[in-house]
Structures are given as structure tokens and as C-alpha cells.
Design goal:
Layout (H helix, E strand, L loop, with lengths): L2 H20 L7 H15 L3 E2 L12 E6 L7 H6 L3 E2 L2 E8 L10 E4 L7 H8 L5 E5 L9 E6 L2 E7 H6 L3 E2 L1 H6 L3 E2 L8
Parallel strand pairs: 2-4, 2-5, 5-6, 6-7, 8-10
Antiparallel strand pairs: 1-9, 3-4, 7-8
Length: 189
Amino acid sequence: MSSGALTRRLLRPIALTVLLAAIPAHGADRSLEYAVKATFLYKFASFVEWPQGSFARESSPFNLCVVGPDPFAGRIQEAVSGQNVGRHPIVLRQLARAERQSDCHVMFISGSANQSVAEALEAVSGTATLTVTDSAIGPTAGIMHFVIVDDRVSFDIDNAAAARNRLVISSKLLALGRRVNVARPGNEP
């Protein structure tokens, strides 16, 4: 593969992410808002490095989990159908509760009477899990936190929390975040 073709292949996910961020998320059209968020969920993974040992094999599944009620109404399944993260096929899992051994690579947490967002975040703190929350559900934030700004889907990033979970977020994704809490020496595990 030529270097130009490789560059175009690597830049496609970034271009898609920027395009999705530009799509209006009008309050009246929550379905479009959650379709954009569903796509972001699996696209984030292309910009994150998981620590060695996060996958048993090179072809092990990439587990995208929704903890608590699913506000996406099936849109995540549509978004991830046939998709991979590297060589890892994406598997969508619905969980009632987050557990330390949930084996999720990306975990969207909506919270419920069964387990609050804060309790779910605490359950997976320190594990190699990219936690994602939504300001439409509440203010408690994971590593990635969806927000609506000027009727557009955006996100905040807690890079210090990512470092505590032994995840490395690409500078390309950090540059797209609305607010970024940068990991500094002494903030890492």
C-alpha cells in the first residue's frame, strides 16, 4: 500500500468524526442525536490504545457494552453491525450492572435504580475500560462525556481518568474534545 493510500485510510475515521460532530442534534430529533452518539461510541475505539493483555487473541472480540437502560433504541447495533476495531469484531453487550470483571472495552453507562452512574464508574475504575456517559442522562462523567453544544453532539475527555485506566487516547481525538482534562506526570497510576 502506498503511503498516500495509507494516509487516506488512517484519516477516514477522523474525517467521519468531524463530520458527525457537525450534524445538528436538535432537541426535537433525539433519534438523530442518539444515532450520532452510537456511531461515536465505536469510532472512539479507533483512537484509543488498550494495554497489553486486553485481548486474549488477535481476533478476540471488541466488547462494546451498554450498562443500564439503552437510550439508543437499537441504533448502536445498526452502527456496529459488521464493524471491527482493528482485527477485533465488535460485539455489543447489554449489562444490568457494571462489574470489575465485565470485560468491556468501551462501556456506555446510563445508570439505573439498580446501579447509579457513579457506582458503575467506581466498579470499573482502574480497569482497561473506556467509560462513556451522557450529559442528557446526568452530570456524572466518565472518560468520555457526551454534551450538546449549539445543537451539536460534542464530548469532553478526562484524559487523566484514561491514564488511570491504562488507556492512551490519541492526540487526534484529544484535539476534537470540547474540554480535555490532560493527564500530567503524577496523575497516572
